[in-house]
Design brief:
By secondary structure, the chain is of the alpha+beta class. It is 42% helix and 17% strand.
């Protein structure tokens, strides 16, 4: 039996304050969260919606260093921009604060100290890279070098962005400090770790046995991590930007951003409700729901719950409805490549059309798999659905009411069989929308709400009151009364999805008292009450506006290609003997599949002329696995085996990088015998 709660705490992932927010953020986290919160409020439930900016971490320091300003300057700028963008799009937070606040520093420090005093951390000493010229330890992103996998220069200490391989700083060839350019040295340092392995038994039962109702993508990713076995995770790091570790002997160390950021949900609640915040975080009668993107699943389903459990007084999340990623015109949204639709820029080009974007992003919500936003689909959904169905129905209803009844709600007379059939369809919508929203199926719920407008549109088209006006005004009055009641219901059904349009429609109908309970009622508007003159709820978007957006993206793509195509300098001279040490051969791909939890990696089974071997390669972005089966490829056969995501890779497939960054597998032009050497 599903537990009944007295209240609900809803959190949305804290956006990183080193840039503006784009449609991927809105679709993945904030619109779904806002839909759910608005729905609960409409039902009269006690709900608190918590948001805020994540303002610590290395990327912010790097951006500040590049611009010659302080990290505080960076977060102040983007916190304001992000907060304003959310407000502009109707994301109805009860509080939107930040992790650089005094309240957050205090709450996060106290949280760490509580776990420290309880002995929940382990201390470990390790060797990390240290920049002697700069006089500081280097975070992973402050270390660059040659990737040991694809041998690209400029790989970071945590990942090679060319081949997508996850790295450790110690993996890099010829590492250099991104601060001074000097070669770093290894130096011992002490840090505190949260022993996730200690929490694995209860996490396994809590998630895998007690939360099978979670979305398959969430449940599956958690199961994968648990099946691989959890490892201790550092909660501190050597940095000068962040929350100082509040224990003796921790000078120059701050709380790791992954540890500090989720505590921001708690500190933001305390900032809003200093006297009653614990009710929302510690009372078993409170339900906790996290809205996040798929890159945050592990932190919110495994790491943060382990932190809360270790502290001992907090409730655990009841659900974590994570979305997948939204692409733009078939390509991954990228901040660094400016391949995005930024919210603050959208409102310049499409003023007053916040609800259009909310509608399209919900209709294309990446709830179970990555989805795509295209400008043509944006235009089509606006023109063919919002304008032609919803807007058209409401506008015709209001126009006809003013034409035939001077803007007053006419009386409803006897109902025909067709009226009864229409109303039966109509009254079932509330239950269906409610069930879908309760199960976090926002895309289907919005579609069902639009079906209400379809019912109304069809009803007007079939009954044709403009023709009946010549002979039967009583019948016209009944038809328009029903159409007006459906319009009033639309303002409630769409309130969670399209708050601006719903507010405008309620104003036109002079509808004052309304709640979710009213949805489905045929008496929302009293006979004789006055409605305002008709105004369009939605406007058609012309081709020129879409063409301008497509041209902007085309210009960005050209600019990215120009910047990307910078042929690397010829490497230092080598010898024929050194080249001959590489055993490059040709083999045939027998099997190919994606590596779980690694978007960029493919696992190959190669027939190499002597048998078979497994090779892992970072080309998943550029090939479908099935397209490579049967293809002959060139590979280096004498690389020492290396584990990637737990898979032993026995060589390296050769690829060429095109000017646009695309990797192209090197193959012989004619078929040759497997195992022959390339010379």
């Amino acid at each position: 039996m599903t537990k009944q709660f007295k209240r609900t705490t809803v959190t949305s992932a804290l956006p990183y304050a080193n840039g503006p927010v784009h449609i991927g953020h809105l679709a993945g986290v904030y619109v779904p969260a806002d839909i759910y919160v608005r729905y609960l409020r409409l039902k009269g439930e006690d709900v608190l919606f918590i948001g805020g900016s994540d303002e610590h971490g290395v990327p912010i320091i790097i951006k500040a260093r590049k611009e010659g300003v302080t990290p505080q300057d960076i977060v102040d700028r983007y916190h304001t921009l992000i907060k304003d963008s959310f407000k502009d799009f109707g994301i109805s937070f009860d509080v939107y604060s930040r992790t650089s606040s005094k309240t957050h520093h205090g709450v996060a420090s106290d949280f760490f100290k509580t776990l420290y005093d309880k002995g929940e951390f382990i201390e470990k000493e390790s060797e990390q890279y240290y920049d002697e010229e700069a006089g500081q330890f280097l975070a992973d992103r402050y270390i660059t070098g040659e990737c040991p996998h694809c041998h690209a220069e400029g790989a970071y200490g945590d990942q090679c962005e060319k081949c997508g391989t996850s790295l450790s700083p110690l993996d890099l060839i010829n590492p250099k400090s991104a601060i001074s350019g000097s070669a770093p040295v290894l130096k011992k340092t002490k840090h505190w770790y949260l022993p996730l392995d200690k929490h694995e038994p209860w996490l396994r039962e809590w998630i895998l046995e007690n939360h099978k109702e979670w979305r398959p993508n969430v449940y599956g990713q958690c199961k994968s991590w648990l099946d691989m076995g959890l490892q201790p995770r550092a909660v501190s790091r050597d940095l000068d930007w962040g929350i100082p570790v509040p224990v003796e002997g921790a000078e120059g160390k701050v709380l790791y951003v992954w540890f500090d950021a989720p505590i921001g949900y708690i500190s933001n609640t305390k900032e809003l409700l200093p006297d009653t915040w614990e009710t929302w975080w510690k009372d078993p009668e409170t339900r906790l729901v996290h809205f996040i993107g798929k890159d945050n699943i592990v932190f919110h389903c495994i790491v943060f719950p382990a932190m809360l459990k270790a502290e001992g007084s907090y409730i655990l999340p009841d659900n974590v409805p994570s979305n997948e990623f939204l692409n733009l015109e078939g390509d991954k949204i990228s901040t660094s490549r400016n391949w995005a639709v930024w919210l603050h820029e959208y409102l310049v080009d499409f003023p007053g059309k916040q609800d259009v974007l909310r509608y399209v992003l919900t209709a294309n919500a990446p709830e179970t798999k990555d989805n795509d936003f295209t400008w043509k689909d944006f235009q089509a959904r606006n023109n063919n659905e919002l304008v032609a169905i919803y807007g058209n129905f409401v506008n015709r209803t209001l126009v006809l009411t003013h034409k035939y009844f001077e803007g007053k709600v006419p009386a409803r007379g006897a109902l025909t069989e067709y009226d009864q059939t229409t109303l039966q369809e109509f009254t079932g919508v509330k239950q269906q929308v409610e069930q879908l929203l309760n199960n976090f199926k926002f895309r289907e719920a919005q579609k069902e709400a639009m079906n209400l407008a379809r019912i109304g549109n069809k009803y007007l088209a079939d009954t044709e009151p403009w023709k009946l006006a010549k002979t039967d005004m009583e019948r016209v009055g009944t038809i328009l009364n029903i159409a007006l009641q459906i319009s009033a219901n639309l303002s409630i059904a769409f309130e969670p999805f399209l708050p601006f349009s719903s507010a405008k429609l309620r104003g036109l109908l002079q509808l004052e008292a309304w709640s979710w309970e009213n949805l489905g009622s045929l008496d929302l508007l009293a006979t004789g009450s006055t409605i305002a003159p008709a105004e369009l709820l939605f406007e058609k978007i012309e081709d020129a506006a879409i063409d301008a957006q497509m041209q902007r993206l085309a210009n960005i793509k050209v600019e990215n290609e120009k910047q990307a195509y910078q042929p690397a300098a010829v490497k230092e001279a080598t010898t024929f003997d050194d080249f001959m040490k590489l055993d490059i051969r040709v083999g045939t791909v027998l099997e190919c599949q994606k590596v779980p939890k690694a978007d960029k990696l493919l696992q190959f089974k190669i027939q190499d002329g002597m048998g078979t071997r497994t090779i892992v390669s970072g080309i998943a972005k550029y090939y479908n696995p099935e397209d490579l089966v049967g293809k002959q490829v060139c590979f280096i056969a004498n690389f020492p085996p290396r584990k990637l995501k737990g898979i032993e890779s026995q060589g390296m497939i050769l690829s060429a990088e095109d000017a646009d960054g695309r990797l192209v597998v090197i193959s012989p032009s004619d078929k040759v015998t497997n195992g022959v050497s390339v010379c």
